[in-house]
Amino acid sequence: MYNRRSAIGRVVSTIALATLMACGINAQAADYPGKPIRIAVPYPAGGGTDTIARLMSSQLSQRWGQPLRCDL
Question: Which H or E element spans position 43?
């Protein structure tokens, strides 16, 4: 059964879907992350955990192409 209310509903939902799809395309175009990635190391500097975190951040930085920083 065809009526005016269902036709308007289809038009509105089609416009909403097109708008959401256009917004999603623009959101993916931005570079993420915009700042260096920080790794929080909850142990003192010079320990084994700190050494491993620094080695991992060096490798991940090269692989991801983003700067990484270890915070103590």
Answer: none
Same domain, 9 and 19: yes
Determine which of 4-8, 27-31, 41-45, 48-52 has the lowest per-residue pLDDT on average. 27-31
The pair of three-digit structure tokens given for residue 33, joined into one six-digit string: 């992350």
Secondary structure (3-state) at 1: coil
* Bridge-based pairing state of the strands 37-40 and 68-71: parallel
Same domain for 23 and 37, yes or no, is no
Give CA–CA dist 15/49, Å, rounded. 53
The partner residues of 43 in beta bridges, in order of sequence, read none
pTM for this structure? Answer: 0.51
Residue 50's nearest CA partner among 27, 58, 8, 5 is 58
Query: Per-residue pLDDT tens for 48-68?
Result: 888 888 888 888 888 888 888
